[in-house]
Amino acid sequence: MVQLSDIIDARRRISDVIEKTPLVRSVELSSRCGVEVFLKMEHRQKTGSFKLRGATNAIQQLTEDEKKRGVVTASTGNHGRAVSVAATAAKTRATICVSNLVHENKIAGIRRLGADLRIIGNSYDEAEREAERLSDHDRLVMLHPSDDPAIIAGQGTIGLEIVEALPAVGTVLVALGSGGLSAGVGLAISSLRPGARIIGVSMERGAAMKASLQAGHPVEVEEFPSLADALCGGIGLQNKLTFNACQSLLDDVILVSEEEIAAGIRHAYDQEREIVEGAGAVGIAALLAGKAAALKGPVVVIISGGNIDMGLHRRVISGDRNILQ
Ligand SMILES: *Cc1c(COP(=O)(O)O)cnc(C)c1O
To answer: What value does the mean pLDDT take over residues 70-74?
Structure first.
C-alpha cells in the first residue's frame, strides 16, 4: 500500500507543476454548522480539478520506454484532462477513453489539449474496458484514474497541504468516486492527525464505493446521469488498492440527492462566490442537508473541481428543477 513517504515524494515531484490551493474559512457554513468550516479550493487547481496532482505524479515516473509507447486511460472527464496536460509536459502521447455520458464541455476541454480522444459506450465502465483493450492491443501504458499507487500518492498531497495550513483539523469531507482522492487524503491525514475523521460523500444513485463497502467486497452498480458526474463509474471488481484503503480509512460515507447537490452548487455560487461542479459541491451539500452529524471541528471540505458546463450551471443557479430528473 501507499505510505506517507510516497505522498511526500509525490509533492516534491509535482510541486513545479501544480498550484498549492488556498484553504479559506467559510463564514456562512461556519455559522450554520456551529463549527469552523474551511474550504480547500481545489477547483482552482490547474485543469479545474485536483486530478492534475495524481496524473503528474504518475506520468513523471514513467520510464523512457513507457513514454515512447504512450499512455491510455478512461475518464469521466477531469482525469482525462489532467492526463492530457501531464502527458504533454512529459513529451508523451495520451489516449483518453470517455463514455457518451461525459458532458460536452469536458470533452471539448480534452480535445483542445490535443489528446487522442475515443468516445465509446454508455458508462464509465465501458470506456474503461476500451482503454484496457487499447492498452493490450497497442502496448499503451494503462493509467487507472484512481486504483494506482502513484495516483493515490499524488492526490494525497492535498492532505499534506491541509494539515500544514490547519494542524488542528478535526474532520475532512472528501468527494468519493472510485476512491483515489479519499485513499490519498485519508492516508495523509490519518498519518499526521490520527484523531481526525475522514468522511466520504457520494451521490445517492450509483454510489459504487458505498455499495462495495456495504457488501464487504467490490461490487458493480448501475451508472446513472448525475450532477456529480465526476463521481460516476465503478471501482472495478478487481480493485487492488482503493477499496481496502476506503474500508480502513473512511469513518463514514454520506450520500446526497441530486437536489442537495444542486443546493451545494448554488450555495458555492451565492454565498462563497465560487463556480463549482456537482462533484465539487457534495461536501457542502452534506453540510447544508445536516447529514454530517456531530461534526468534530475544525472541518475541511475539499472543493474537488469546477469543470461544470456553464449552461448547466446557469440552470442550477436559477433553480430549474428539470435538471434533477
Ligand atoms: C475524480 C473526481 C472526484 C472523485 O475522485 P475519486 O478518486 O474517483 O474518488 C471528485 N471530484 C472531482 C471533481 C473529480 O474529478
So the answer is: 97
Indicate if the alpha-carbon torsion angle 256, 45, 102, 57 is positive or negative.
negative
Q: Which residues contact 312 (CB under 8 A, 6 or more apart)?
A: 103, 227, 323
The C-alpha angle with vertex 251 and arms to 31 and 3, in degrees rounded to 5, equals 115
Helix/strand number for the chain, H first, E second: 14, 10
Question: Is the C-alpha dihedral spanning 29, 287, 199, 269 positive or negative?
Answer: negative
SS3 212: helix
Closest Cα to atom 13, ligand 1: which residue? 305
Using pLDDT thresholds of 50, 70 and 90, give the confidence band for residue 177: very high
Report the nearest atom of ligand 1 relative to the CA of 180. Answer: 7
Closest ligand 1 atom to Cα of 306: 13
Instruction: State in Å: Cα 305 to ligand 1 middle.
Output: 8
Place of cell 505524479: 57
Q: Which amino acid is at 99?
A: S
Smallest CA-to-CA distance from 109 within 98, 124, 120 is with 98
CA of 62 to the centre of ligand 1 (A): 23
276-286 confidence digits (pLDDT tens): 999 999 999 99
DSSP one-letter code for 289: T
To test ligand 1's pocket by mutation, which of 304, 308, 309, 313 has the most ligand atoms within 8 angstroms of CB? 304
Cα(284) to ligand 1 centroid in Å equals: 15
In the three-class reduction of DSSP (H, G, I as helix; E, B as strand; rest coil), residue 39 is classed as strand
Atom index in ligand 1 nearest the CA of residue 155 equals 7
197-248 pLDDT, tens digit per residue, is 999 999 999 999 999 999 999 999 999 999 999 999 999 999 999 999 999 9
Threshold 0.90, pTM exceeds: yes
Q: Are 166 and 193 contacting, i.e. CB atoms less than 8 angstroms apart?
A: no
How far the first Cα of the chain sits from its last, in Å, is 40
